[in-house]
Structure formats: C-alpha cells, structure tokens
Design goal:
Strand order of the largest sheet of chain B: 6-7-8-3-9-10
Radius of gyration of chain A: 18 Å
Structural class of chain B: alpha/beta
Helix content of chain A: over 70%
Number of helices of chain B: 10
Number of strands of chain B: 10
Number of strands of chain A: 4
Keywords (chain A): Amino-acid transport, Cell membrane, Membrane, Transmembrane, Transmembrane helix, Transport
Largest sheet of chain B: 6 strands, mixed
CATH superfamily of chain B: P-loop containing nucleotide triphosphate hydrolases
Strand content of chain B: 25-35%
Order of helices and strands of chain B: EEEHEEHEHHHHEHEHEEHH
Main location (chain A): membrane
Membrane topology (chain A): Multi-pass membrane protein
Number of helices of chain A: 11
Organism (chain A): Oceanobacillus luteolus
Oligomer: heterodimer
InterPro entries (chain A): ABC_transp_permease, BCAA_transport_permease
CATH architecture of chain B: 3-Layer(aba) Sandwich
C-alpha cells in the first residue's frame, strides 16, 4: 500500500509539471491553431532564470516570480516576432518554432554556460515527513498543490470571467468572435503570454524536482506535453489536466515495474487514443 | 433618404477565386434591403466582404459615410454592424447565456433592457438559458444567432439566410421576429425563401455571378414575373 501511494504521488507530481507545460500549449493550439515547438524553450528559460534568481537571492518565491516574468516577456516576443508572421501555415510554424526552440536553447548556453547545474530545494520544501508508514516528500506535495491551484484559478477565469468566455469562444470559432467586435489578435497575445508564463513556471518547478538543469531538457520535456495535448484533446484545458495525470501515473508505475518501458508507455497511450479517439479524450465543441 | 451603407463596384476574392465582380448597392437607413440570387451567386460573400472577412480588391464600401475597406472585422463590428452568418456561428460549447454574454459589449441598463426584450421575443432562449448552444435545435440556434447580433445597439444588421434548414413554423417565427426588429434597426437580409424575403423586405437587389444585375422595390418584384424567372428561377 505504501508503495502504491508513493508511486501515485510521484505520478501526480510529474503529471502536474507536464500539465503546467501542456495547459498553455493546448490553449495556444486550440485558440490560435499554432503548433508551438518553441514552448520547451520558454520552459528552460523559466528554469534557468528562476534558479539563477533563487540562488542569487536565496528566495524561492522570487525565483518563481522571475521565472514567470521571463516567460511572459519571452511569450510576448515569441508571439509578436516569430508566430505572428506564420499564422495559418502549420508547416512554417513547425519549422520556425523548432528553429526558435534551438535558438533559445543555445542562448541558454551563452547566458548560463553549457554545463549541467545542480539545484536543491529551498529549506522549507526540503525533506519529507511520515504519515503512518508512508513517506511523503514535501516538494512533490508542493508541486501537486501548485498544479491544483493553477488549474482551479485558470478554470475559474475560463468559466466565470469575460476574458475566459472569449478565449473559450475563440477556441470554438475565431471568426465569429471577431464578428462580435472582439480583437482576437490581442486575445491571442494574452493567451500566448499566459501559456509561456505557465511553461516557465513548470520549468523552475521541474528544475528543483529533478535536481539538475541542462539546456536540452526543454525539448525532452515538451515532447511529453505534446503527447498530453493530443491525448487530452487539442484546445481542452480539463483534458490536458486529465491526460497529464494519466501520463504522469503511467510513467511513475512503469518506471518502477518495467523501467525500460517508462517512456514508451506514453507513446503507446497516445497511439491508442489516436486510433480510437483521434480528437482526444475531451473534444472541444465547435 | 440617407444611405447607411453603400457598396460601389466592389470586387473580392475568396482565397484565389474571384467571386465578386461588380457589386453595387445602397442601404437606406430604417429599411430592410434584401439580397436575392441563386445559390453561389455571391450573396454570402458580399456580407462577409462587408464584415471584412474577405478582402476587397477593388471598389468601395462606406458605412455611415466612412470607408470601411481595409479595416479589421472587429473594428467594423464595433462601428455598429451586427452579423448573423449563414451557419449561425453559435459557440457550441457555451450555454445560451454565455453566447449572449460574449456578444454583449456593455452590461448597462440599456443592454439589459434589450436582452429582456429579446428574451420575450424568443422565450425558448430563456427556457434553455443554461443549455449548451450545440444542443439547441436549428430554429433555436437561429434565434440565438439573431439575438446575439441584436443584443447590442447596432445601426445595421446583416442577416444571412435565416430560414435555411428551418421547419415552416420556425420560418414564420423568425420572420415575425425580424419584422419586429426592423422597426428599430436597418437590416440587410440575404434570403433564398422569396416568400419570407417579400414579407420583410422593402427593396431588393439581385446578385448573379458576383454582379448586381437588378434592383427595385420589393412590391415591384412580386409583379415582375420575367425577372423572377430569369434571375431567381421562380415561375
């Protein structure tokens, strides 16, 4: 039982990290129909900037704030300079965002050096505690809490606020939203920046979780996010949470029982979904 | 009478296809102008071009005396034009209430009054307020689409084939609602159902192969059997 709970917590923590990265990606794809392969670049910039500020100031909170800010800023720059000229052309989007991803990755090496860096959790989140016979690692619980908090806040915004309503409507029919007098490009930009901010938040949280950061981790981790977006349904926010948890749990259990298949299991999940439900588990209604 | 909307020699492309070749018409304030024509004549493209959803390659479109060519769709909509597209454009995953809330530019007393008036006109929308747009019947979707365009105080409504795919009883209901709206708003109506168009319209323009080929008062057209047969295939 202890092992089961421990694996569930591992899976949930990984799932929440993937969710934070995938949430922005799914909204960006759903609303803007943009395949953003540069998303992993925003993730690593969040990780490196956040860790740098954390280590300079010894404040993890400031590190998180810095990560989100750099994410928002890079999101703004990416949308205006890289994405905007290629709206509506998926082939160009793949090429240009993949290229920009590599640029962001190499710039990390220029700014912070090419070597891996070790990262340790802040004191208040280090270590573990016992509940009965179960060992609970503080930082994993923290990640789960942050993931739930982000999901609840974003869901409330999407469900209750006018901007949320516009984003949901935009995912369904962009043209009609414009015909109702709404500046969809401005909405695009805000959604892109928010997605980038979430990716950067995921970056700093993942940096401390894995204990090491390196420039290539953005591309590696963003593949999981793409898998989650496909499984959850492109454009579906709740779908990305569900799929991220599914992927996180599958990875945690497989890593323990059949380690050689821990990465393949996610590809297998995606393949099964694509065969039987190509629109994803949570289809966005048009 | 003052013209609210004027199109002069408008040409437009849809992707690479030259669809509108020479569209010219005037919409006087306070009237219902009907665009008639066979399937594929260019009526829907004309409305989409007015809304800025297709690019004008030649000619001019002016609304309230100002050119709207080259302006963005949201800017055109905000200048006072409400649009009911042919496919109704309902947000299927949003409830009836949310569909209307997205459209409402203000939430002031006047807008609330208009909303209440609309809900009296279309009681089904009130009844199914929390139902998702995608689950409504064709007629209810049409009502919602018209209500959404009317909830703001627009000077002009562009309504594209409101009777399309509706049962006769729903067509009567939609006709009645547009007749009530025309007391307060200028309307451009694209319609294939001649009976409906003739009940609502005050003047007409016939579009054939992307060109406005005939125009006049609606009452005259009813008597003009030759034009009806030639351009609309009605004998």
């Amino acid at each position: 039982m202890e092992l089961f709970i421990s694996l569930v917590i591992n899976g949930l923590a990984t799932g929440m990290l993937i969710f934070l990265l995938a949430a922005g990606l799914t909204l960006i794809f759903g609303l803007m129909s943009v395949l953003n392969f540069a998303h992993g670049g925003l993730f690593i910039w969040g990780a490196y900037t956040g860790v740098w500020v954390f280590q300079m100031t010894n404040s993890f909170t400031l590190g998180i704030v810095a990560a989100i800010l750099i994410g928002l800023l890079l999101g703004l720059v990416t949308e205006r300079l890289v994405i905007r000229p290629v709206y509506g052309n998926h082939m160009q989007q793949i090429l240009i965002t993949l290229g920009f991803m590599l640029v962001l990755q190499e710039l990390i090496k220029v700014a912070f050096g090419p070597d891996q860096k070790a990262v340790f959790p802040p004191d208040f989140l280090a270590g573990s505690f016992m509940v009965g016979d179960i060992v609970l690692i503080k930082y994993r619980l923290f990640i789960i809490a942050v993931g739930i908090l982000v999901f609840v806040i974003a869901s409330l915004i999407l469900k209750k606020s006018r901007i949320g309503l516009i984003v949901r409507a935009g995912v369904m029919d962009k043209e009609m939203v414009q015909a109702l007098g709404i500046n969809i490009k401005l909405v695009f930009m805000l959604v892109f920046m928010t997605g980038a901010g979430l990716a950067a938040l995921s970056g700093i949280l993942h940096a401390v979780y894995s204990g090491v950061i390196y420039a290539e981790m953005g591309l590696e981790f963003s593949i999981l996010a793409f898998i989650v977006v496909v499984i959850g349904g492109m454009g579906s926010f709740p779908g990305s949470l569900f799929a991220a948890i599914l992927v996180g749990l599958a990875q945690a259990f497989m890593a323990y029982y059949v380690p050689a298949l821990s990465l393949a299991v996610n590809m297998l999940l995606m393949t099964i979904v694509l065969i039987f439900r190509p629109q994803g588990l949570f289809q966005v209604k048009g | 009478m003052e013209n609210l909307l004027e199109l002069k020699k408008v040409e437009a492309f849809v992707q690479h296809y030259h669809i509108l070749h020479d569209i010219s018409f005037e919409v006087p304030k306070g009237e219902v102008t009907v665009l008639l024509g066979r399937n594929g004549a260019g009526k829907t493209t004309t409305l989409r071009t007015i809304m800025g959803l297709n690019r004008v390659s030649k000619g001019s479109i002016s609304f309230k005396g100002e050119s709207i060519v080259g302006r963005t769709t949201f800017d055109i909509a905000n200048s006072g034009i409400g649009y009911v597209p042919e496919d109704q454009g309902i947000f299927g995953g949003l409830t009836v209430g949310e569909n209307l809330r997205v459209a409402m530019k203000k939430e002031d007393e006047k807008t609330t009054e208009r909303l209440e008036w609309i809900l009296e006109l279309f009681p089904d929308l009130k009844k199914f307020w929390k139902k998702e747009g995608g689950q409504l019947s064709g007629g209810q979707k049409q009502m919602l689409s018209i209500a959404r365009a009317y909830v703001n105080e627009n000077d002009l409504l562009l309504i594209d084939e409101p009777s399309k795919g509706l049962a006769p009883i729903m067509v009567d209901k939609v006709t009645e609602s547009i007749q009530q709206m025309k007391e307060q708003t200028t309307i451009v109506l694209v319609e294939q159902n001649f009976m409906m168009a003739s009940q609502i319209g005050t003047r007409f323009y016939i579009i054939d192969d992307g060109v406005t080929v005939h125009s006049g008062a609606m009452d005259e057209l009813k008597e003009d059997k030759q034009s009806m047969k030639k351009y609309l295939g009605i004998s």
